[in-house]
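Bug #77: duplicate submission created two jobs. Keeping one. Sequence:
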Amino acid sequence: MASTFHLEIVTPDRKFYEDEVNMAIVRTVEGDVGILRDHVPSVVPLSIGVIKIKKDGKMIRATCSGGFVSIDEDKATIITDAAEWPEEIDVERAKFAMKRAEERLKESNKEVDVLRAQIALSKALNRLRVSKGE
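Kept job's structure:
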């Protein structure tokens, strides 16, 4: 049997996921990181991206809106503002958010918060990718 570790994903409003898993892959600010049992203990900031969870030979995916992952030898805890399974994603809402962010980025007035619009666009695109199984 493959070795496992305890993975917990927590958002402000719920415990999103908790189980023994074989591997997790998260998007950090420096790129993707794979987590296995006996990983070097660390705390790493996360970017907007996909959490990939491998358990019993199957890979499942969820969105992650950024946050942190705390890794110990036999446990990893992801703390994020938001996480969603593909079936939870409101595709029409994500498309609307994407279009709105794109429009805001095209505006040239000083009242537009460019960073906020870029983050909204990244989150919407991420949600749409995960909803399609990418």
